[in-house]
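Figure 6 in text form: structure in, sequence out.
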């Protein structure tokens, strides 16, 4: 099992991983096996998102196009701290991608959030001196507790970006972070994915973690970059 609970954990290449993978090369791998049968039943993605932030995990993911490269994706809960844009203290989750023992920039991407029952309210993020606040935090809707695989992506939270983390600075563009529940076509693994907005090249960066029906995080994961609904131009995974 490549997941380690209680150490520096990761996922979802939240916004930090988007910049990291946009700078990476590589190509996606293909397989010749027959497609797997569609997954039956439903999955609690609300619990999965909560577990990503409040529990996290560590996943070691070999690059599909470079046998010598393995990316470690890690997300870990961190001590509560004040969010720079409003001074209020919130729970935090810190994500990193590590290659050859070094954190890839931008390092220590931080999500500030509140828990309410099993749901999560994302307040904002901080990455390399840039902050984003969620304009919909006050009315954020809980994610589904009975989602089916291979549905369309949907927004999990939005961020209005300020490049200097100064609340007096006018916010810049708003980006939408999306979730999606997908099934790997060859292995039948069900993955909870967080998709970062398209880069300048129109590509989406996805961090996907295997979950069970209850939303528990399991041992397999995938990082991918590529056009929406297209073939990945970069892929690292442990299955």
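Output sequence:
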């Amino acid at each position: 099992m490549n997941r380690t609970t209680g150490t520096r954990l990761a996922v979802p290449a939240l916004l930090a991983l988007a910049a990291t993978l946009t700078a990476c090369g590589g190509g996606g791998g293909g397989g010749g096996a027959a497609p797997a049968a569609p997954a039956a039943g439903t999955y609690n993605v609300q619990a999965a998102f909560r577990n990503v932030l409040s529990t996290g995990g560590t996943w070691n993911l070999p690059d599909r196009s470079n046998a010598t490269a393995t990316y470690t994706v890690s997300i870990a809960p961190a001590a509560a701290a004040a969010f720079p844009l409003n001074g209020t203290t919130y729970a935090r989750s810190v994500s990193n991608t590590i290659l050859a023992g070094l954190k890839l920039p931008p390092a220590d991407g931080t999500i500030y959030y509140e828990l309410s029952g099993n749901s999560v309210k994302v307040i904002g993020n901080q990455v390399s001196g840039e902050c984003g606040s969620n304009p919909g935090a006050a009315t954020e809707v809980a994610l589904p507790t009975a989602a089916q695989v291979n549905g369309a992506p949907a927004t999990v939270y939005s961020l209005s970006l300020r490049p200097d983390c100064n609340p007096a600075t006018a916010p810049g563009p708003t980006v939408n972070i999306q979730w999606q529940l997908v099934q790997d076509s060859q292995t039948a693994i069900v993955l909870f994915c967080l998709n970062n907005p398209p880069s300048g090249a129109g590509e989406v960066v996805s961090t996907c973690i295997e979950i069970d029906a209850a939303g528990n995080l399991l041992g397999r994961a995938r990082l991918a970059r590529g056009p929406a609904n297209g073939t990945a131009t970069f892929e690292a995974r442990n299955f």
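Caption detail: The chain has one domain: 15-237.
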